[in-house]
Every structure is written in structure tokens, then in C-alpha cells.
Amino acid sequence: MLLKYDKGTISIKGEYNLPYTKWDERTDNLRAMAYRYRDIKDYLDKSGIEYEDRVLDPIPTSDLNFNVELRPYQKEAISRWMDLTRGVIVLPTGSGKTYVGIAAICNVNSPCFIVVPTLDLVDQWIDVLKKHQLPAGEYTGRKKQTKPITVSTYDSAYIHAEKLGNKYKMILFDEVHHLPSEGYRHIAEFFASPHRMGLTATYEREDSLHRDLSDLLGGKVYEVDTDELTGEYLSDYRTEIIRVELTDQEFEKYDEYTSIFRNYLRSTNIQMKGPSDFKKIVMRSGNDPRAWKAVRAKNNARQIAYSSEAKIKELAKLLKKHIGDRIIIFTRYNNMVYRISRKFLIPAITHETDKTERESILRKFKDNTYQAIVSSKVLDEGVDVPDANVGIILSGTGSKREYRQRLGRLLRPSGNDTILYEVVTKNTTELRTSSRRKRE
Asked: Where would I find the Helicase C-terminal domain in this sequence (predicted)?
């Protein structure tokens, strides 16, 4: 029996029927997705079936060493993962997930392909790897390097997975909650890497696709909650919800838009039980004018709640209260970011901010030239943000994942206590989504 890698699959020549395989009439042999390589090998070994293995053609790698004293929870996480060299580790933002990943790579001592969501994270991983004299390369739209440890984005890895899928014995997915998305999941499927790790601070997805990670990488092997690390390893924190009211004019418009949306739900007998139900209406809006009008009304109502005048007034009070503190303001919409930036003369970071300007703003925030910064979702993930001790959420999706990411921007091992304010509008869906998240 012969096993070979073929463009994201395992080609199997032989007379046996094997699990995870299908007959390929085009090539007259069995075939399986590449990620089944380890399962098929285990089956053949246990069954005593002789075979020739030509699947992996790994990048040559010398000894990998990482001489860093890890914290007890980091050591425990690696120990749990090493039992099977598969699975997902869940650690809060700021708790050293990168060190856990690098230590695991060095323990396995094999070439590793690291997949991250953004180019900023590519740069951060490579900086840490090179700081510790580890052979790091980048495989993105900017560079095409294949080193013993190669870092890529999800987008680049997806494009080149068929070509690279047998070059690395280990694959590591940072911010692994992105992986189950349609498209990105093919990265895991096309790589034959027997050793697989996922890292994240936020394991669950609202669409429940995180359940697929068990098949693609292995299940959750270790998790530690933020509260378990605060005090000793992360700064202590408290949260405070501030409720504000719409003006009469704002509420009139809000009620008008929500009525349009509710009338559509009643006329179509659609029940809104979760975010996935709203996505179905969005899908309908492409060829249903009433659905399009309902979606637009829903978004308009949401923007009124998220950008109310009372929130601006409350923000002014909080900025005055926390003079001398280091503040990050989070909001959902770019127009609100720029409104706050103009009114309070606070530097703004959005997806429209180029890398040079963003790095300059964050550098000046770090050295206390700027006391505060305001951002939309761009700081939620994948950007190295200097320590802050006050967070102000003026709007968000209400998801547990987003909330944890924003809290993680404050919880660093600096020793300073932190506070996270969440300013929500009463008598709107925003208050309900905030309450729902806390029950999750």
C-alpha cells in the first residue's frame, strides 16, 4: 500500500477499504482529505497493514529551543496538549498565548506553519520568534518564505494550502475561532500536519461552528478563565453598566424603524431567536424589497441606539472623571469614531487608518503623549495595543467574544487595577443584547 500527498488530499494505492476514504474513479485509487493522514496511519498501524508513506516532505529543521520560564498555567496547557499533540487551548487576551504556542512548537521540534488573521499578527509572531533566535519566515502577499517556522494569514494560507499542505509536521491556528468559517476550514483540511494546535481567547461562535474544531484540530484540551488569572497574572478589574436614555426625537425615529422591522417579521411569521435568524433576513433582502427595507430599518434603529446624544454626554463625564488614566473607547460605527475624535480631540483608529499612522498613534498612546484613543472594531483583535486601565464601550454587537476581546485589551500584567464601562441605551435592543451576553 502506498500513501502520497496530492493537492490537499491523500492518494492511497492498495487493495484495502480504509476509513475516511472514498474511491476516486478518475485516478482509480482511494482518496482522503489530507487532514485524515494521522487517522489513516493510526488505523494501518493498529491493523498491522504494511504501507509505504510518502505523504510528508517537511522543511528541514534543526533543534528548536525556547528558553523562557513559563507560568504554571502555561505549562499545564502545553502538558495537556502534548498528550495527543492535537487540540485547542483557550487563554485570555494578555495571558501569553504566543509563548504557549512557541513552547509547544519547540517541544514537538518539527517544522510548523502558523496561521493568523492579520498582517499585524504576522509581524508580532515573527518579532517574538526572531527575538528568541528561532528560524521564522513569512508566507503572505508581501513575502513567500518557507522556513522551519512560517507565519501566514488565513487568506494567504487558504490560497496556497494545496501547495504547502505536506511541508509542515505541525500547524498552529492563532485566533482559531476564525477557522470553521466557510473557506478557511479548507486550510485545516488540506494540510496533512499530524500535530495540530488552536489558540484563542474566545472559543465559542454564535453560529455554533466551533463544534467543527474537534474534527479539524481536536477538541478543547485546556481552558482558563480571566477571573482565575486576575490579581497574580492579570490586573484586577471591575465592570460597570451605565444606562442612558434617547431624546424624544431619537426615540420617535427609533420606534418608527423598529415598527417597520417588527411588521415584516409578523407578515412573514419569522421568529427572531438569535443572530442566525437575522442573517436569513439579510439573505432574503437580495431579491425581496420588503426584506431589504426591514434590514435597513433594523440597522437604522441600531445606529440610533448605539450613537445617541446621551452617550456623548456620558462619555464627556467619564473622560473628565478619568483625567490622567489611559483610556480606550470602543464603538461600532466609524461615523461615531470620527464624531468622538472631532468633539474631544482624541486620535481615531479605524480600518481606514493606514499602518504607519496607526503605529504612530499607538506609540504616542504608549508613551503618554495621548491619554485616550477611540476605535471601531479594528482594535478588537490582531493589533498589539499598549496597556490601558480604562475601557469605555459605547457600542458593540453584544457578543461574548467581542466583549472578552475588549476586556482583554485592559487586562495586562501591569499591576494597575482596571475598569470597563459599558454605556447602553435604555428601552432598546442594545440593553437586551448586553443582558443576553451576560447570561451566556
From this structure: 311-440
Q: Please count the other Cβ atoms lying within 10 Å of the Cβ belonging to residue 248.
A: 7
Helices 275-284 and 289-306, interaxial angle, to 10°? Answer: 130
Q: Which domain holds residue 386?
A: 238-245+307-437
CB-based burial label for 217 (10 Å; 0-12, 13-18, 19+): buried
Mean pLDDT of 237-247: 90
pLDDT above 70 (res 144)? yes
Q: Is residue 265 located within the same domain as residue 384?
A: no
Query: Where residue 439 falls among pLDDT bands split at 50, 70, 90?
Result: very low
Residues 270 and 343 in one domain: no
Q: Domain check: are 299 and 312 in the same one?
A: no
Whether 313 is covered by a domain: the verdict is yes
Beta strands in 298-400 (DSSP E): 327-330, 348-349, 372-375, 390-393
61 occurs within a structural domain: no
Statement to judge: residues 293 and 407 lie in one domain: no
Contacts of 403 (CB under 8 A, 6+ apart): 393, 396, 437
Over residues 264-297, the pLDDT tens digits come to: 999 998 888 777 788 889 989 988 999 999 999 9
Q: What's the domain count of the chain? A: 4
| Residue 71: CA count within 13 A, CB half-sphere | 16
Looking at the structure, tell me whether residues 254 and 400 fall in a common domain: no
Sign for the pseudo-dihedral over CA of 170, 187, 409, 131:
positive
Interatomic CA distance for residues 303 and 395, integer angstroms:
9
- CATH number for the domain spanning 192: value is 3.40.50.300
- Cell 473607547 locates to 329
β-strand 52-54 against 29-33: which pairing, if any?
unpaired
Q: Do residues 5 and 34 lie in contact, with contact meaning Cβ atoms separated by under 8 Å? A: yes
Q: Is residue 67 part of a domain?
A: no
Q: Residue 398's pLDDT is what?
A: 55
Nearest to 314 by CA among 220, 369, 393, 250: 393
Whether residue 365 lies inside any domain: the answer is: yes
- Residue whose entry in the numeric block shows the C-alpha cell 483610556: 327
15 and 126 in a single domain? The answer is no
DSSP 425: E
Whether the pLDDT of residue 382 is over 60: the answer is: no
Q: Per-residue pLDDT tens for 388-425?
A: 889 898 976 555 666 666 676 665 555 567 888 999 99
